[in-house]
Every structure is written in C-alpha cells, then in structure tokens.
Amino acid sequence: MPKIKALQADHSEFNSFHHTTIVRRALRADDVAIDIKYCGICHSDIAQVEGIDGMFKHPIVPGHEITGIVSAIGTDVEDFKVGDRVGVGCFIDSCGKCRYCLAGQEQFCEQGTVAVFNTPDYDGKITEGGYSQSVVVKAHFVLHIPDSLNLAEAAPLLCAGITTYNPLVRYQIGKGSKVAIIGLGGLGHIAVQFANKLGAEVTVLGHSERKRAEAEKFGATGYEILRDDTDFDRFAGQFDFILNTAAVKLNLDHYLKLLTVNGIFCFVGLTMAAQQFNLFSLFSKQGTITVSNVGGLPMTQAMLNFAAAHQVRPQIEMIGIDDVPTAYQRIIDSDVHYRFVIDMDTLK
After folding, report:
1. Dihedrals phi, psi of 212, to nearest 5 degrees
2. Is the peptide bond between 338 and the residue preceding it cis, with omega within 30 degrees of 0?
3. Cβ atoms < 10 Å from Cβ of 68
4. CA–CA distances in Å: residue 27 to residues 20, 34, 63, 72
5. Long-range contacts of 255-258 (CB under 8 A, 24+ apart)
6. Exposed, middle or buried, 333 (CB in 10 Å: 0-12/13-18/19+)?
7. Residue 120 and residue 55 in contact, taking contact as beta carbons nearer than 8 Å
8. Closest by alpha carbon to 314, among 171, 192, 180, 140?
9. Residue 257 — φ and ψ, nearest 5°?
10. What value, to the nearest 5°, has the Cα angle with vertex 23 and ends 14 and 65?
11. H helix or E strand, kind and range, residue 23
C-alpha cells in the first residue's frame, strides 16, 4: 500500500499541524487514484480540528474540497481515465443500496455516509482527507471537473458550492424569484452567483459597506444593511426565499418579517447557538423555516456543470501547505477573501 505525505493535526491547537506520512489503500477494482492538486479549506475542517462537542478524534488529516488528476483506475472503472480532471467532495462511500443511495442522495445513507476524513470507513479505518498528496476513492464518489473550470477555483464548489446550489434548486428558485442572501462570505458570494445565474433577483443582506461593490460584481441587484426595526419594516414581505449563509445567531422574527406569503427561510450557515422565533412570525405569512444539507453525487455533478456553463467562480486566496495554521486563524477572524485553497504541490 502506498505511503504518501500529508499534513496532520494532533490536537485542537492550530500549531499542532505537522508533516507526516499516511498510508492509502491499494487500488481496488472500482477505485480511482487521484493526485491531489488543490484542496479548499472549509470552516467545518476547523470545527473538527478544534474537536467541537468532543465528538472528533485526533490525530486528523482534514480536507474535503479536493481537486486533482486521475493517476490510476481499477479494472472495473469505465467513467474515468488516467489524466482526467476530477474532484472529491464531502463523502467517499455509502451503502449504495438504501432508498436514499438509490435516489442519488448518498448524504442521507441509512447505513451511514463515510465522510472524506475523520470518519470510520466500513472497514473500520478512520478516513484521512485532502491535505495530502493523493487519495484513493471509489469511482462512484469521484466527480468530473469540466475543462472550463479552473481546477483551483473548482475546489470550494465541492462543499460551499453544493451547499448553496442544493437549496436553490430544491426550492425551484429561478426567473421571477426574489431572493435575499444573508452574508457575503465563503458561502454567500457563491450563493449570489448561483441565484443570479438561475434567473432570480438577488439582494444581499450584509453588515459592511465595504462589500457593496463586490455584491454587485457577483450578480446582486441590491445590497442592504438592516440594523433596526425601521430597516426591516422597509423590506417586509419582499422576499420569496431567504438563504442564511451566516453562522451566527439571528433575530429570526426580524428576518421572517421579510418573507412573502408562503416564503421560505433556509439555513446553510450553521451555528451551535439555539435559534428562537415566535410562531406568529411564521403564521402571518404561512412561512417555512428549513435547513439544507449538501447534495448527493448527481446534484453535485450537475452543480459543477452549471458552474462551468454559467461562469460561477469562487473567489479564492491560494496558500501553501505551511500556511494552513495561519489560514485557520484568519477564517475565525473573518479575514479571508473569500475561500482559502491549498496548493498541494507545496507539500514536499
């Protein structure tokens, strides 16, 4: 079995990252081996390294926004060839037999989805992620990266992209829809692009004037900073769909006021803080509060194809492997514009 270089965290302090060697499994008949070129950094990487709720074990090799080049294929693989540009997202296995897997919603596998890293695989071994030179993945969980997508920019699409695309498609956002996006960060700047390209009229609900021009560049037709009751009253009943990408506690009663009748408020920015609201805030509009997960493999491939066709491009800041601890702290400090991507060629 091949030994490869990787970056590993031994405990919750970011300075615990160090270079190490890990072992990937030998190629199976249905596997694809990938030379990793880029790996995005997601806030959920940080959450696992920090060990939120004590649920996560150490040491950890994080990373679940992986793009690279196919280096080898198993004997039964037909959809990929050596040299293909590919990606791996949030998970790398599922049972393949339950109703959700058969429906292309592997993220809800009844036996349990196997995440890219820090999760027991079906053989009991803990998975290790994309902060490494290569990975071996069952072909079903490998995605084609269209030629018109920059391989580095494609990396954040494999988590942030599908996280925002899934609810927009699921709730049939399109021409005539009036959408509000809360937050213009790593998720929000991609959500604005998708909503705009789907045909919606998009307003960003931000907190800083410095992002107004960028919101317009990404496709927003409006940018509002809502601070008090008067501000919220001005936009009451204006939005069919509100997508919250901010991982903070909100005054939901204020935001629910913005919905149209039968409007939907959807969370994709998740926080451990309890969210509270008055039922009458929903009753008056017959509104819906919901949350959205990532998409399954078919939807993720459709998202990549859509991004390529409509020039949806995450804005990234490229870093080297040894910059990861600093990048983690900068994400916590909201000092990233808008997603970090690691150049894995720097892992020597």
Report:
1. -60, -50
2. yes
3. 26
4. 22, 11, 21, 8
5. 255/182, 256/281, 256/282, 256/285, 256/287, 256/289, 257/232, 257/233, 257/281, 258/180, 258/232
6. exposed
7. no
8. 192
9. -60, -25
10. 55
11. strand 17-23
Which stretches within 13-111 are classed as H helix? 43-50, 99-102
Give 242's strand partners. 180, 265
Task: Say whether the peptide bond before residue 298 is cis (omega within 30 degrees of 0).
Answer: no
**Per-block average pLDDT, block size 10, for the chain (348 residues)?**
88 88 96 98 90 70 97 98 98 97 97 94 92 97 98 98 98 97 96 98 93 95 93 95 92 95 94 86 93 96 98 97 96 92 95
Per-residue pLDDT at 269: 87
Give the distance from CA 93 to its chain's centroid.
Answer: 18
d(CA 318, CA 6): 18
What token pair was written down for 75? 């004997």
List the structure tokens of 8: 């590993």
Task: Give CA–CA dist 262/121, Å, rounded.
Answer: 41
Q: Which two tokens stand for residue 323?
A: 């910059």
Integer CA distances (angstroms), 157 to 89, 245, 308, 309, 314, in order = 9, 15, 11, 14, 7
Given a contact cutoff of 8 angstroms between Cβ atoms, the answer to whether 243 and 191 are in contact is: yes
Give the C-alpha separation, 50 to 170, whole Å: 32
- pLDDT of 54 reads 59
Q: What is residue 242's predicted lDDT score, i.e. its pLDDT?
A: 98
Q: Which domains does the chain have, with CATH numbers?
A: 3-159+295-346 (3.90.180.10), 161-291 (3.40.50.720)
Both tokens of 7, joined, read: 């970056």
Segment 28-66, tens digit of pLDDT: 999 999 999 999 999 889 988 887 655 567 789 999 999
Give the pair of three-digit tokens for residue 180: 């509000």
